[in-house]
């Protein structure tokens, strides 16, 4: 479970059916897959900067974008 957080970049982060749903400030929402949801949630909750952590996970491809057709 994602703990409540304050972020200048992120509006919300949620886990749904093994996927990570991210809504950035401004309203854009993206869906990502992650190999180990529990590990991601633990690391996200522990991160000092939620936005920096999330962007790093995307760049390292720990989070992989789900492409909708």
Write the layout of secondary structure elements.
Layout (H helix, E strand, L loop, with lengths): L9 E7 L2 E6 L4 E6 L2 H10 L3 H10 L3 E3 L4
Antiparallel strand pairs: 1-2, 2-3, 3-4
Can you walk through the features of this model?
With 69 residues, the protein is of the alpha+beta class. The chain is built from two helices and four strands, in the order βββααβ. A four-stranded antiparallel beta sheet has the order 1-2-3-4, with helices on one face. It is globular. The relative contact order is 0.22. The mean pLDDT is 95.
User: What proportion of the residues is helical, as a percent range?
Assistant: 25-40%
Shape: globular
Give the biggest beta sheet. 4 strands, antiparallel
Question: Strands of the largest sheet, in order across it?
Answer: 1-2-3-4
Please trace the helix and strand order, writing H or E for each element.
EEEHHE
Uncertain runs: none
Number of strands: 4
Strand fraction band? 25-35%
Brief digest:
The protein has 69 residues and is α+β, with helices and mostly antiparallel strands. It is 29% helix and 32% strand.
């Amino acid at each position: 479970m994602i703990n409540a957080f304050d972020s200048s970049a992120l509006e919300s982060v949620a886990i749904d059916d093994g996927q990570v749903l991210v809504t950035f400030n401004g309203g854009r929402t993206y869906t990502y897959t992650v190999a180990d949801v529990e590990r991601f949630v633990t690391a996200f909750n522990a991160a000092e900067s939620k936005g920096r952590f999330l962007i790093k996970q995307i760049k390292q491809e720990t989070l992989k974008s789900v492409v909708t057709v």
